[in-house]
Amino acid sequence: MTAWPVPAGSGINLVAGGAVSKVDPETTGLHPAWRKALGLAYFTESWADGDPASVIQGVRKKIERGVDILEGLGSATYFNEASPFEKDPQKTFFGSHYQRLKTIKNKYDPTGLFIVAGGVGSDDWDSSLNHRK
Q: Berberine/berberine-like domain location, by residue (predicted)?
């Protein structure tokens, strides 16, 4: 059994290529870059129970620096495998598909009942998702 907190790490999940790359990216809601990706890079960090907020904030900043490097490469990610602290979820999760997806959402959910942080339409709400902007 691994002790907690675990050491920092990173990895590459090779779930791209193959059949994933053969689907026309314009026929799905996924970010188009997902269909051309070689893999999914990720970072992991942790802190111990009882660590002060300053330690937790330091861990978050360290991860953000790593993500900033990847964003400089024009990266994207799959919505279910991303940080809840994503700075630009529209661009990172959906890319050029965002406006089309928002139009579809507005058609089938005109009152905005279904909302999730970073999801399509979340930009119409404040960060608490309790109040519309």
A: 77-117
Within a domain: 55: yes
Residues 6+ apart with CB under 8 A from 105: 114, 120, 121
Other CB atoms within 10 Å distance of the CB of residue 30: 19
pLDDT averaged per 10 residues in sequence order, the chain, 133 residues: 52 68 86 80 80 92 83 78 81 93 97 92 92 91
What is the predicted pLDDT for the residue at 1?
A: 38
Segments forming the whole domain that contains residue 116? 9-124
User: Could you give the number of structural domains in the chain?
Assistant: 1
Predicted confidence at residue 78, as pLDDT, reads 76
